[in-house]
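Lecture 7 notes: from sequence to structure.

We start with a single chain of 119 residues. Read the sequence below before looking at the structure.
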Amino acid sequence: QVQLVESGGGLVQAGGSLRLSCAASGSISSINTMGWYRQAPGKQRELVATISSGGSTDYADSVKGRFAISRDNAKNTVTLQMNSLKPEDTAVYYCKAYIVALGTMRLYWGQGTQVTVSS
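Now the structure, written as C-alpha cells:
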C-alpha cells in the first residue's frame, strides 16, 4: 500500500514563510515526477510546482520567485518552501506523485494540508 503524507501547513501572516513536506511510503520501486497542487474554496485544483526525478522543476507563474520545490530521492520526499506568502496563496495544498510499486506506475495524491495566509 503506497501512501503520500503531507505536513507543514498552518496559519501565517502575509509576507511570512511556510515549508510543506510530503513523504511517500510503501512498496515503492521508483518515483517519477512529484508535485504540489492547491485548491482554494470555490476554485479548481491548480498546479503549484513539479519536479522530475532528475530535478527539473516547473512553477506556476503566480509562485515563481517565491516558492521552491525540492526532493530527496533517497528518502522519497518532496518539499515546498513557500516565501513571501500572500492571502491569495490560501488553499489546501496536495502532494502528487507518479509512483512505481509492485511493477505498476500509478498516480497518487496526498490527503492535503491547509495553508492560510492572513492579511
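The chain has a mean pLDDT of 97. Keep this in mind for problem set 3.
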